[in-house]
Amino acid sequence: MEQITLDAIDLALLAQLQLDASLSNLALAERVHVSPPTCLRRVKRLLDAGWIERQVAVLSVDKLAGVAGHGLCAVVEVTLDRQDQAALEAFEAKVAPDDAVQQCYRVSPGPDFCLVVHTANMPAYLALTQRLFTADANVRNVKAFFSVKRSKFGAVLPLPTA
Question: pTM value?
Answer without folding.
Answer: 0.83
